[in-house]
Amino acid sequence: MADDKFYTARVTKRTDFAHDLWMVRMDPGGDFKFTPGQYGTLGVERGDGKKTERAYSIVSSPYESELEFFFELVPEGALTPKLYQLQIGDTCSLRKVAKGKFTLDVESGHKHHLLIATVTGGAPYISYVRTMYKDWKEGRLAGDHKLYILFGASKSFEFGYEQELAKVAAEVPWLKFVPTVSRPWDDPEWKGEVGRVDELIRKYTDMWDMDGKTTTAYLCGHPDMIEHGKGILKRRGFPKESMREEVYWIPPKAGAKT
Fold first, then answer.
1. Where does the chain show beta strands of DSSP type E?
2. Cβ within 8 Å of residue 173, ≥6 positions away
3. Does residue 253 register a pLDDT over 70?
4. Which of 18, 74, 155, 200 could be cross-linked to 187 through a Cys-Cys bond (beta carbons 3.0 to 4.6 Å apart)?
């Protein structure tokens, strides 16, 4: 792999949400263009001189000068244990070209976007929100496209970005945000919605009067949630072309993001 394919990205900030969940901001090391919903490919050198690389959805907006990533430690993973060691000032490689098609659907004519996620699967949605929020504040967004986020985690500290999303949702007319905790008995201070996020799809698509003719549904994160969620949406009347998915870890032959 030629060096001209890579930047050297440097960690500028790190926040740990839990022992296995953390956020980093990075100076990409060069001009890095992307569309909200795309991913960056990070890599760490191995002992044999080669790189171990994996793709991670970008949390930050293209308007930001730094890249932000939300990681979950996979103890047996090929890369996250190495990324977990990175502290402020440390570096890793970043492929110069962003990839991915998990971007906001602006082609179908649908104005409603149902965004369903588990834990780090919320990363691309945060990029959508940050970008739209800046456009809204600066008068470039009419607010025609409306986002409805269902965000699931076992316990509330795993959301990472709950406060940010709740703050924007309280301020703008184009965002609704519903976080849900699946293990409320381990989180006695939690006062919000409870249950697995896929179990709430029917409730909220009914409440928000959504169907596949006017709404595009996005599912990102845990593969079981995605499979269950697609089944529920299908029974709710969503055709395949009204659903998009981004699976974060599956058997290695299919290209897990770890």
1. 6-18, 21-27, 39-45, 51-57, 67-72, 91-95, 112-118, 146-153, 175-181, 193-194, 215-221, 243-247
2. 143, 146
3. no
4. 155
Instruction: Report yes or no: 61 and 130 within 8 Å, Cβ to Cβ.
Output: yes
Contact in structure between 115 and 71 (CB atoms under 8 Å): no
Is 81 in contact with 75 (CB distance < 8 Å)?
yes
Q: SS3 for 42?
A: strand
Distance CA 108, CA 111 (A): 9
Count CB atoms within 10 A of the CB of residue 39.
21
Q: Rounded to 5 degrees, what are φ and ψ at 252?
A: -50, -35
Q: Which tokens is 104 given?
A: 């906001």
169 Cβ neighbours under 8 A, 6+ residues apart: 149, 175, 176, 177
CA distances from 234 to 120, 125, 258 (A): 24, 22, 29
Two structure tokens written together for 70: 């939300």
Q: What is the pLDDT of residues 58-93, one digit of tens each?
A: 999 999 999 999 999 998 888 999 999 999 999 999
Ranges of H-type helices in 138-199: 162-171
Mean pLDDT (the chain, rounded): 93
Please give the CATH topology (third level) of the domain spanning 3-95: Elongation Factor Tu (Ef-tu); domain 3 (2.40.30)
- Options 3.30.470.20, 3.40.640.10, 3.40.50.80, 3.90.420.10; which CATH number does 112-254 get? 3.40.50.80
